[in-house]
Amino acid sequence: MVWTVGVDLGATNLRVAIAGASGEIIAQQRTPTTQGPDGAAITQSVLEEVDALCTEVGLHRTDIVGVGIATFGPLDMQQGAVVSPPNLRNPIEQIDLLAPFSDRYAHAEVHVLNDATAGVIGERFHTPMHPDNMVYLTISSGIGAGVCVDGSVLRGWDGNAGEVGHIMVDPDQALPCGCGGAGHWESYASGEAIPRYTRHLAASTDHHTEMSVESVDAAGIFAAAAEDDPLAAAVVAGVNRWNRIGLETIIRAYAPFIISIGGSVAVHNPDAVVAPLRTAIDHAPITTVPDIRLSPLGNEAPLLGAVAAAMTGGTGDRRRLV
Q1: Looking at CB atoms within 10 Å, which of 97, 111, 202, 215 has the fewest?
Q2: Nearest-angstrom CA–CA distance, 6 and 2
């Protein structure tokens, strides 16, 4: 029997899955992502979770023929590592993934890829039409995109293609980004940034609110907006404005047939995040308006993409099943 492992290393949660020959998931688990104190501790926690799941289903390391690791970035593909990630609570210099997994699973081919890239691989692999021109957009702790153009998944020479969260949407650069820049899409509309954006609007406008702006999180802001809190409603309207700018940039750049939106912010708030984009982008000069949809795979797209990469030599192409 052919067995593969998929890993989705997110800033908040770590997901691990084991799949059989046809890609069916036989076991999976989710745990909070270790935040440090250093990269070695994070790597060790991922290895331990994979080992534990293999033990749970009665597999030995030598039974695993492929490992796909979807991870937040930025990536250093020469080292197979994450370098200076901006969305962890603690500053981390480097998280090695390729070498430790290759050593531990010596019979397996190991692939490390950006989580949004894994997302578009997962979407294409599990969509019957297998679209050749599509974007998987994740709006979560951060914002990123996996892009497929004319059947080719774009990765970039360093594996960091699709870092659309760092498109500048605010030329005034009012809010800083975790990457060290300012005015980026991720500075305003990501799960980590929405509370900061709320405090910014609270300080610069006179919107009334019942929220405790110093402690509220993104989920609380969306909940308050649904209850017509004026400040929360202004925040969500602003988030939608930044999302529209980002999405229109993606449409102009890649002319996708489908934009599939995942990530916790979108998945937990589809009516507030995805539906307004469908309404706002009702025409697109130069390019055709794509089908803008909530990801049918929910938060599982990067994990399923990691499994698909493990099964297909990193490509996600069904014709290259191991």
Answers
A1: 215
A2: 14
